[in-house]
What does this fold into?
Amino acid sequence: MHGLAVDALSVVAGSRALVDAASWSAPSGAITALVGPNGAGKSTTLRAVAGLVPDRARASGAVLLDGERLDALPARERARRVALVEQSTEVPPQLTAREAVRLGRTPHHRLLGFSIGDDAIVDAALGDAGAATLADRRLGELSGGELQRVHLARALAQQPRLLLLDEPTNHLDVAWQLELLALVRRLAADIPVVMTLHDLALAATHADRVVLLDGGRVAAEGAPDAVLSPARIRAAYGVEAEIDAAPGGVAIRYRRLEDPA
Ligand SMILES: Nc1ncnc2c1ncn2[C@@H]1O[C@H](COP(=O)(O)OP(=O)(O)OP(=O)(O)O)[C@@H](O)[C@H]1O
It folds into this structure.
């Protein structure tokens, strides 16, 4: 299959399955949203797809990108193919944004050092992520939203064949959320993009496919309107959802089960 196929992925810490035999796919040319309640295993899943597993945990199952087993590749090879932007990444505060984005090129270098062409790639990545004006600022001085854009630029500089974004709209104001989603749409023309989202209305509006995780398992997978139904939202989150699908986007109103309609 063209794109990402996750087959019976489990991440087990001690006797506890954080991700439990989850199988799902994310085709090229599409945005796939990974949704689910707190603790459902979304971040653990993205990290495991990128080859990162918590200390003292064990991953099993297969992760295939365009038919190639990613989980069988050495870390450096995997890093050439997969970029992950996490919710919070420790950053050296003295590094400039440009220096941080340049680190995205590291997996592509044969020896330590930089390659010809890196500068143009780094500049393009900074521009695409809306971080060009931040290039010479130090990371320690940036706001949460600005830092988020720099992390995205670093991922773009990696020129990955699979882009994984953990809560990419966190910290972003509404204008930058829309910019980010437009950029993700452009990127998804060529590669699979998987992003975790808490905002189900954003997922319903902007994703082509939705994977609903609950308790580490795949509760549903498919078209947004099929997965994000009131019944499934009730089952996974324990809330009532009233879904209003207008041409400009989906709006969802929530209420607790015990509250009057
Ligand atoms: N290093 C770890 N060791 C043991 N358990 C962990 C570890 N990291 C996460 N967990 C547990 O794994 C489960 C899944 O966590 P994960 O962060 O993947 O969920 P999530 O769906 O991303 O949640 P959220 O929406 O709150 O970000 C949680 O119960 C969490 O407590």
